[in-house]
Protein 1
Amino acid sequence: MPSTRRQFLATSSIALGATAPGLCTSDAPNPTRPLIVSTWPFGKASNDEALRVLTKGGSILDAVEHGIKVTELDTKNRSVGISGSPNAAGVVQQDACIMHGPGHQAGSVAAIEGIIHPISAARRVMEKTPHVMLVGDGARMFAIEEGLKSIDVDSSKLHEAWRKERASKKQAVQKRSKGDHDTIALLVLGSDGNIAGGCSTSGWGGKLPGRVGDSPIIGSGLYIDNEVGAAGATGLGENVMRHCASFMVVDFMRQGLHPQEACLRAIHRISRIDPLATEDLAINFVALDKKGRYGAAGTGTGFKYSVTTKSSSVVLQSPGVTSKDIGPEGGNRK
Ligand code: ASP
């Protein structure tokens, strides 16, 4: 085994040592089920709701939808839901998706306006249409026809005003600041071993109208392989989309890697391919596998994520990856 690879695995197993009580990150003879993993500390409230739904006999899809709805409704959250960050024209355009492991079904909505629960719209797309993705006005119209809660938005005037202002001032697109993001990506491993997951976000604050991030793109912001596990992403969507990153994380798990090693490995691989410095990629992943193991990793100093089982609901710190860690084989240079 090349030394870089050996060192990478050694680094990973140190990170794997950060196990919360009652939770299982090692090889699990008795899988921890149900298991819910989501991005960021605000994911914890969503996890708790997802667990409540499962405990009451709800399905894994119900758990994902109702869990994510908690964050979408949180008016203090400026990155998910209708109270999220507006685009350059001052309009909140949201992205969301959902996936159901059994049957490998998926649904998503992108650049949708004025819908209180984009995650529910994504689920309806999956369950009630022959399509996977609806965008913009079509997605909004569909959601309203489905009876989902909406608010009146007359974004055409805002968009028009922005277009005029932009044409006159040659206004540049706002650069994304470090705190100007966050997505809820929530993964559920059910008691029967089936997996579901979802994502919801208002995306990059100040983005160009019509910009779609990674979150509603299956394989980028979310991916589930019911035989293996699930992964979800948060961070700078453009850098996730260019690498089909959630698919990559799941594929590493398919090759036998622990979820945390898979997240780290994906960041290492992306960092080697991408011209951007690792820290500037601003990408973060959560993952869980069929065995009831979970993990996460992020660029820079890492990020916080939430993990919930019947016996514990905690916020954990993921390991981080910096440019110094990147070697030619995805290993640690040191
Ligand atoms: N990934 C999302 C996007 O780029 C937002 C985030 O998670 O920060 O739209």
Protein 2
Amino acid sequence: MPAKVRKAVFPAAGLGTRFLPATKAQPKEMLSLVDKPLIQYGVEEAMHSGIQNIIIVTGRGKSAIEDHFDVSFELENMLETRGKTDLLAAVRAVSDMINVCYVRQKEALGLGHAVLRARELVGAEPFAVVLSDDVIDSETPCVRQLLDIYQFFAAPVLAVMEVPRENISAYGVVDAEPVYHNGSSDRLFRIRDMVEKPKASEAPSNLAIIGRYVLTPEVFESIGAVEPGSGGEIQLTDGLKHLLRSRPVYAYRFEGTRHDAGDKLGFLKATVEFALARHDLGSDFREYLKSLKL
Ligand code: G1P
């Protein structure tokens, strides 16, 4: 049996330039879809996948994230005195169920660099990586889907989805061969090669890496061995490509819908879909949208 995955790393030190001015004094991970910050969707996904230890890689100006996962004594006291038990439960739910620790990425030198900052806290055990820009709506949490593959093959695995050619250069892209697993051969792939943000004409496939990974600790050595790549940054994709030299790495086309909440249009779409799915808001919101007669 491979070692149990107990920890999830959340890189959260990016500058959030795509959402300026909203992110001038507020981390982009704290932007909310309806009423929940992006990072909380990812933390809940990890939690519902059986992971309780959360490592957040932060940078300057990210203290709102720390406050969010901390106990807010004044707020809880006020909700309790006013008998607002539902809100109290919502506020407590996350901080009660997980352990969070923080490590600083002093300079935004790339995703691989951010993951490497978590090395000491992760130690010599497997771990998940969750990018909170990618919000995934699925019956089985996406991290759980990857953990099932990891447990079966005892090898690193990352989430992929098919994206149209014209969008492929926004992603890490894999060159991979199908692996027959659980009665099908169109979900699991063994990676042959991968490349971060290729030109559309040079992309090896239409399978794009989405921000969920289950990795083994050898990846730290590999990340440490690569030079800055796309955008002059230390890329996680390059670290994983280096890891391929010494062990198999899998890609899993997960079941579920991924929202690109790191993009303005993606963020708006996710907001509408999540609001429509809410019991307390959905029907009024649907009526409102219909009334717009677009
Ligand atoms: C990161 C990864 C990329 C991946 C993407 C998924 O890129 O580097 O490989 O495809 O997340 O969202 P970013 O979007 O941070 O530029």
